Each structure stands twice: as structure tokens, then as C-alpha cells.
């Protein structure tokens, strides 16, 4: 049985957002059942089947008897990363700038892999910090900064990102300590907390949170209200959510759970 929560109640998702969610689900899981696709979109079976047919024609997935599977991409990892960066690019930049305001020189930080975390790293190149990350592109970006000590977490390199994961990564993270863990997310919901598609990525992010004095979550607009399949941390473990905008009921819900919101404007 899938542990993906249903799409949030409210207005139906527009077609582009619905298809983006399907593509992301299949890309991250490799295989997704029809029921899982129905859950993350909240659409009817007929609508989902039309979406799957269109995405297959575009070469973004392959339909199977029970759902869909990922297809082999011919673009480079850098091209894939740039495609992800282009989604909510302005909002990610504003979120990164706001998150950077929460950092004092001399701090030690954990940074997860991901496009919003990379945007934050871009804001830190002239700071005096220690940055611990499994994201090789973030490590490379910061390696030339005179004021930044970079510690790279080892592990298995994911085929679909620049990040390292796996037991070695988690063990290394647990042996360290940071003042703040900045965690990206594949989805955040009021009831489900901070979520990810990957079990390994979730384990690494959870270890960062547990090995830090504070946890700050970075969430671009597409991630708000989206219940990815794996729990990373629950809200009581999070000090601050940095977001461009939030539905009032979402902000109220996490506020009741003790989470401060830092709005990126």
C-alpha cells in the first residue's frame, strides 16, 4: 500500500501542476502505481490516464499495465538539474536570501542536496562558515570561498542528483554536529510534516536534523501541501519554515505545532 497522502483539498490542480506532480513522482520512485498517481493529483482516473498518455508521448515516462515507470533520460545530470532549478526559480532565490539572514558568521551548517539548497549556497560564498553537505555541486561551489570550510559527506552517489546517500552518508552525518540543518523537501503538509520521495534522502536529511541544534526547512511553492511518500521529520523537530507564501490555514496549522514562518518577499 502506498503511503502517499491524498492531494490537499481545495481547488483542483491545474493541468501543468498535475502533470508536474506525476512526472516528479515517477522520476523519484522509478515506478508508480495508478493509485499512487491518483492520490498525489486528486484527479479522476480518466484525467490521470489522459495525463499519462500525454507524458508518454512527450517521452517523460512509460505507461505500464498498473501505472507508469521512469524512462532512461538522454540529457546530462547538469541539464536535469537546470530543469529543476527553472521551476519556481524566483521564489527559490528569495527563499535562499531569506534563509541566509538566519545564519551568523562562524556557524556550522548542514545543507541537503537540491535546487533550493543550492540557491542558499550561492548566497553564502562570501561568508565565514563551516558547511557540511552531501551535495557535490554545493561543495564545488563553496570550495573556492576563502572563508568557508567544506566537509563533504561520503556515500553512494545518486544517479539522478549530485547528492550522496546511503548508510555511509548517514553514519558520517551522525558523527558530526551543526548549529543549523537546512533541509529541502519534496513536500510539506500540516499533518504529515516534512516529506521526501526517497527513503535514502529522507534518512540523510533526518540525520542532519537530529545532529543539529536547529532545523530550518526550505520549501518552494510547489512543495506546499504536497505529501511525498516518505516522512523526513515531524514539525516539532523544525524551528523555522522558510517559504515564499503559505495558505493561511497551512501557516496556522504549523504555527500550532510550534513552527515559525520566515516569509521570503
Task: Describe it.
The protein is α/β, with parallel strands linked by helices and 265 residues long. It folds into two domains: 15-69, Arc Repressor Mutant, subunit A (Orthogonal Bundle), CATH 1.10.10; 80-263, Rossmann fold, CATH 3.40.50. It has ten helices and 15 strands. The protein has helices at residues 15-29, 34-41, 45-57, 77-86, 89-100, 115-122, 136-143, 167-174, 199-210, 248-255, and strands at 31-33, 62-64, 67-69, 108-111, 129-133, 148-152, 156-157, 164-165, 178-184, 187-189, 193-196, 212-219, 230-233, 240-243, 260-263. The protein has a seven-stranded parallel β-sheet with strand order 6-5-4-9-12-14-15, sandwiched between helices. A hairpin with a 6-residue loop joins strand 7 and strand 8. Helix 5 crosses helix 6. The protein starts with 14 loop residues before the first helix and ends with a strand.
Task: Characterize this entry briefly.
This protein has helices spanning 15-29, 34-41, 45-57, 77-86, 89-100, 115-122, 136-143, 167-174, 199-210, 248-255; strands at 31-33, 62-64, 67-69, 108-111, 129-133, 148-152, 156-157, 164-165, 178-184, 187-189, 193-196, 212-219, 230-233, 240-243, 260-263.
Topology:
Blueprint: H1 15-29, E1 31-33, H2 34-41, H3 45-57, E2 62-64, E3 67-69, H4 77-86, H5 89-100, E4 108-111, H6 115-122, E5 129-133, H7 136-143, E6 148-152, E7 156-157, E8 164-165, H8 167-174, E9 178-184, E10 187-189, E11 193-196, H9 199-210, E12 212-219, E13 230-233, E14 240-243, H10 248-255, E15 260-263
Helix pairs in contact: 5-6, 6-7, 8-9
Amino acid at each position: 500500500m502506498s503511503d502517499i497522502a491524498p492531494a490537499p483539498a481545495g481547488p483542483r490542480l491545474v493541468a501543468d501542476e498535475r502533470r508536474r506532480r506525476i512526472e516528479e513522482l515517477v522520476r523519484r520512485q522509478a515506478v508508480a502505481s495508478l493509485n499512487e498517481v491518483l492520490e498525489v493529483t486528486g484527479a479522476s482516473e480518466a484525467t490521470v490516464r489522459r495525463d499519462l498518455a500525454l507524458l508518454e508521448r512527450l517521452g517523460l515516462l512509460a505507461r505500464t499495465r498498473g501505472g507508469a515507470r521512469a524512462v532512461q533520460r538522454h540529457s546530462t545530470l547538469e541539464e536535469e538539474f537546470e530543469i529543476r532549478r527553472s521551476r519556481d526559480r524566483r521564489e527559490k532565490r528569495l527563499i535562499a536570501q531569506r534563509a541566509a539572514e538566519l545564519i551568523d558568521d562562524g556557524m556550522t551548517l548542514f545543507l541537503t542536496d537540491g535546487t533550493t539548497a543550492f540557491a542558499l549556497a550561492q548566497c553564502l560564498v562570501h561568508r565565514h562558515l563551516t558547511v557540511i553537505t552531501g551535495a557535490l555541486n554545493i561543495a564545488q561551489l563553496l570550495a573556492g570561498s576563502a572563508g568557508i570550510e567544506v566537509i563533504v559527506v561520503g556515500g553512494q552517489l545518486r544517479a539522478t542528483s549530485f547528492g550522496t546517500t546511503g548508510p555511509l552518508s548517514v553514519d558520517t552525518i551522525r558523527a558530526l554536529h551543526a548549529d543549523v540543518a537546512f533541509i529541502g523537501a519534496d513536500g510539506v503538509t500540516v499533518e504529515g510534516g516534512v516529506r521526501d520521495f526517497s527513503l535514502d534522502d529522507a534518512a540523510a536529511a533526518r540525520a542532519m536534523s537530529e545532529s543539529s541544534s536547529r532545523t530550518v526547512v526550505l520549501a518552494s511553492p510547489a512543495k506546499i501541501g504536497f505529501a511525498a511518500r516518505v516522512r523526513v521529520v515531524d514539525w516539532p523537530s523544525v524551528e523555522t519554515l522558510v517559504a515564499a507564501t503559505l495558505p493561511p490555514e497551512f501557516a496556522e496549522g504549523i504555527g500550532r505545532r510550534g513552527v515559525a514562518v520566515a516569509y521570503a518577499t
